[in-house]
Fold this sequence. Notes:
107 residues, 4-stranded mixed β-sheet, 4 strands, 46% helix, alpha+beta
Amino acid sequence: MKRKPVVPREQAVRDVEDAVDHYVSEGAAHAAIAFIDALEKGYAHIGLYPATGSPRYGHELSLPGLRSWLLTGFPYLIFYIEKVDHVDVWRVLHGQRDIPASMREAE
């Protein structure tokens, strides 16, 4: 199986920066580093197995192909769509957010 490149959109990059900033501002630099490690593992997984993410929000939002993958050890979801030549990451959101409203911002 060939790994597809994982390409985060600008909003996904901002989401990650916001999460890291939050952990650092709470005095949890170790958690920020662990979050980045979990994100890298999540990106590696969806690059190899993009079809394994949940299609729940894709159905809920009428966004064909949208899937989500939960980061290990963190309450964050990677939202993405598999393309022919890459994995398009739309957002990286905390699971307690209003996911539908946040995803509509990305459309």
